[in-house]
Amino acid sequence: MKVSLFATCLVDLFHGNVGKATVELLERLGCEIDFPESQVCCGQPAYNSGYVKESKEAMKRMIKAFDHAKYVVSPSGSCAAMFREYPHVFKGDPIWQRKAEELANKTFELTEFIVDVLKVENVGASFTGRATYHTSCHMTRLLGVKDAPMKLLSYVKGLELTELPGKENCCGFGGTFSVKMAAISEQMVDEKVLHIDETHADFLIGSDAGCLMNIGGRIERTGKPVQVLHIAEVLNSNEKGE
Question: Where are the beta strands (DSSP E) in the chain?
Fold first, then answer.
């Protein structure tokens, strides 16, 4: 099965290991990976800030970049959800709305793709440790992906998974929200770190790099001994910390 990787800005710039783990995992599951080098930002930061006209230029470039793809897979629920939003953005434009719908219909978040398209729940991963999972807002509420990550993690050999109290609460990132509303964002992420601490977990697992960057930064600043990992890194692992 041919899959085009939508890496996202944060993975490209800050979390290269997540991109590597995603590729290795999908290849191990029998996928042939294509990486369109013309891909850029999906336009979400500009769009969410009200710059709709400006964001459309980036969106059109992304539509063109993945025009050839059969499946588009991203290790980010937030960015995949933005692709699903494209038809609404281009509503009323017959040409670009059609192209946007084609892209939206073939775009999947990583765990969603593995469970719903590949029909795999046990990827053969092994990771020893006590962990908790952060359910990001965009992935859960906008994309509607709730069960796939937990199904995949439940089969990881050696992983002791504890439910995160207040898991439905935002971590305070929200893209530009954390910049524009820094004081509120700080209180929200402090609450999230407090709940993580309550689980006594050694690892925090998530599926969105933005959330993990925000929570991980706060964990580091408060001196908590918790390692932050993307779910792709755990599902691609064969031993603790790999």
Answer: 2-5, 32-34, 72-74, 107-109, 126-133, 157-162, 203-206, 227-230
